[in-house]
Amino acid sequence: MGANWNSKENKHTPIVKEGTKYKASQVKAMVEEDGMSVAEIAEVMNLSVSRIYEYLKDTPPDQIQEGSAQHNNTES
Asked: Three-state SS string across 4-60, please?
């Protein structure tokens, strides 16, 4: 599930750390179960859009919504 960019090997490698695997599984669920866009997920998880794409590296492109995050302005 997902991948990290390994600059020493100049390629994507599988995620190793358990905490990162957990985040990747959360991201995958947000896409598959909640239908959230990459931008929305990045905002909610406080991660970069590129990091979300790395976590979704093994997800078919037709399942990924790029979109933009929606902001609700509640100022009075």
From this structure: EEECCCCEEEECCCHHHHHHHHHHHHHHHCCCCEHHHHHHHHCCCHHHHHHHCCCCC
Look at residue 12 and tell me if it is in a domain.
no
Positions of the chain with pLDDT lower than 70, given as ranges? 68-76
Residue 15 lies in a domain: no
Half-sphere exposure of 29 toward its Cβ, with a 13 Å CA cutoff? Answer: 7
**Within a domain: residue 69?**
no
Q: Among all chains, which residue has been given the structure tokens 């990091």? A: 51
**Cα 31 from chain centroid?**
8
Q: Which residue range is the domain that position 59 belongs to? A: 3-7+20-63
* pLDDT on residue 75: 38
What is the structure's pLDDT at 68?
58
pLDDT at 21: 92
Q: How many domains does the chain have?
A: 1
